[in-house]
Design a protein that fits this description.
The complex is a heterodimer. Chain A has helices at residues 31-43, 48-71, and strands spanning 2-3, 14-28, 76-85, 91-103. By secondary structure, chain A is an alpha+beta fold. Chain A has a single domain (2-103), classed as Translation Initiation Factor IF3, CATH 3.30.110.70. Chain A has a 4-stranded mixed β-sheet with strand order 1-3-4-2. The longest helix of chain A has 24 residues, at 48-71. The radius of gyration of chain A is 17 Å and the shape is elongated. By secondary structure, chain B is mostly helical. Chain B has a domain at 8-57. Classes of the chains: A alpha+beta, B mainly alpha. The interface between A and B is medium-sized, with 15 and 12 residues.
């Protein structure tokens, strides 16, 4: 499945617009990771535990969006956008959405 | 010696993860997934590989340093000792809490609600932990690094 942030796919024709598809995921770090991240926050630098947490949520949200598009017969998703919000301390929420289309 | 040829189920699982099954075959495979734990494990393992393959970006320099640090005895000792002391301290405090709850001259109307709250919390935590451990093998995203 083609995923793109642009509205069109060069060289491919959109033959049908299926509609909005989206996926979201909220994931939490376990207590050990949370504590290490808090300690690292005292000295600065990358909080790798939270980088990983956000990446996990991003990949899961992407997969959910693709699964919805696939179930609706899409072959590509255009105009993909990411959003995030703060649900809880130590948790990462990622929402990804786009327009499912069928390309020729 | 060449590796054994993949079974029909392994081929189906690969096609499922790679999104190559026709809609009818996919629906049929999803029905089997709901019934067959071995098939779910096979798909989970393939999904793990697929997620690893997505991480095509080369390693950053700092990652080599993190890996070197993780191998250093001093760093390992500090982390191990810190974690052990923390766990021992928490267990000691919890033991004292239970002792206090039993022995302290608390009015029954305070003691029993406290016991109920603690037991309720312990049961809920146990249920959450059990659910996490049960679903962990089917959570490929735990391998995502960045």
């Amino acid at each position: 499945m083609i995923l793109t942030t642009t509205d069109t796919i060069p060289g491919r024709e959109i033959v049908e617009t299926i509609g909005l598809v989206r996926g979201s995921a909220v994931r939490g770090a376990h207590l050990g990771h949370d504590m290490m991240a808090k300690l690292k926050n005292l000295v600065g630098g990358e909080l790798a535990e939270y980088t990983k947490l956000l990446a996990e949520a991003r990949e899961q949200a992407l997969d959910r969006m693709q699964a919805e598009a696939r179930a609706r017969g899409a072959t590509a998703i255009v105009a993909v956008r990411f959003a995030s919000s703060d649900v809880d301390d130590g948790a990462a929420e990622v929402l990804v959405y786009g327009t499912a289309v069928r390309v020729g | 010696m060449s590796p054994p040829a993949p079974s029909r189920d392994e081929l189906l699982a690969m096609a499922f993860v790679d999104d190559e099954l026709a809609p009818e075959a996919r629906a049929e495979f999803e029905q089997r997934l709901a019934r067959e734990p071995a098939l779910r494990r096979e798909v989970s393992a393939l999904k793990d590989l697929e997620l690893l393959a997505r991480e095509a970006a080369p390693k950053e320099l700092v990652e080599h340093e993190w890996a070197a640090l993780a191998r250093e005895p001093a760093q390992r000792a500090a982390l191990g000792l810190g974690a052990t002391l923390l766990v021992v301290g928490v267990l000691a405090l919890a033991t004292y809490g239970v002792y206090f709850l039993i022995e302290a001259p608390l009015p029954p109307l305070l003691r029993w609600p406290l016991v109920t709250v603690l037991l309720g919390g312990a049961f809920l935590f146990g249920a959450v932990l059990r659910a996490r451990l049960r679903t962990l093998p089917h959570d490929p995203y735990r391998h995502v690094r960045r």
